[in-house]
Amino acid sequence: MPPELPYRPNVGAVLFNRAGLVFVGRRAPRDHTDQGAGAWQFPQGGLDKGEDPRAAILRELAEEIGTDRAEIIGEVPGWLSYDLPPALVGVAWKGKWRGQTQKWFALRFLGEDADIKLDAETPAEFDAWAWVKLAETPAMAAGFKRPIYERVAEEFSPLAAE
């Protein structure tokens, strides 16, 4: 992997409903480089230059699931990074990044299920969604993201339904 490629700054949301379950979306296929298609994941997205991560996570929720009706209730200390699989380096994100460095937030969902609209952005990030137990999410994630999901699940486990 070319060491000169930087990590893409990113934010991630673990969105808890009133029952302590978390939102996951199934990644819709976008193009031939999308090895994450079909995997379940939390909403996440790129951080614009100079953008505050707390503002960015609400923007990402609105873009990806059609609602930002949430409040931040927790944050993983520091940033968590992952590398892309070697076959995607130089291909994904137009070859600009080696992986992502992410700031993760826990949020309480203040809306209703009907507020969630997967077609809020085109093309849609997700083609299905569900509320699941936080402890189940690492096994649902794409393999190269699994260590991040394990850390996030551990960090936010006090907020989760058992």
Question: How would you describe what is shown here?
Answer:
It is an enzyme of class 3 (hydrolase). One of its GO terms (biological process) is ribose phosphate metabolic process. This is RNA pyrophosphohydrolase. The chain has one domain (7-159): Nucleoside Triphosphate Pyrophosphohydrolase (Alpha-Beta Complex), CATH 3.90.79. 17% of the residues lie in helices and 30% in strands. It is built from three helices and eight strands, in the order E-E-E-E-H-E-E-E-E-H-H. The protein is an alpha+beta fold and 162 residues long. The termini are far apart. Strands 1, 4, 5, 6 and 7 form a five-stranded mixed sheet that branches. A three-stranded antiparallel sheet has the order 3-2-8, with no helix packed on it.
Topology:
Layout: E1 7-16, E2 22-27, E3 40-41, E4 44-46, H1 53-65, E5 70-75, E6 80-83, E7 99-109, E8 126-132, H2 137-140, H3 146-156
Parallel strand pairs: 1-7
Antiparallel strand pairs: 1-4, 2-3, 2-8, 5-7, 6-7
**Overall shape:** globular
Distance between the termini: 40 Å
CATH-level-2 architecture: Alpha-Beta Complex
**Strand residues, percent:** 25-35%
- SSE-based structural type: alpha+beta
Q: Give the integer mean of the pLDDT values.
A: 90
Number of domains: 1
Question: How is the CATH topology named?
Answer: Nucleoside Triphosphate Pyrophosphohydrolase
Main sheet specs: 5 strands, mixed
CATH secondary-structure class: Alpha Beta
Helix content: 10-25%
Cofactor: Mn(2+); Mg(2+); a divalent metal cation
EC number: 3.6.1.-
GO molecular function, one term: guanosine-3',5'-bis(diphosphate) 3'-diphosphatase activity
Protein name: RNA pyrophosphohydrolase
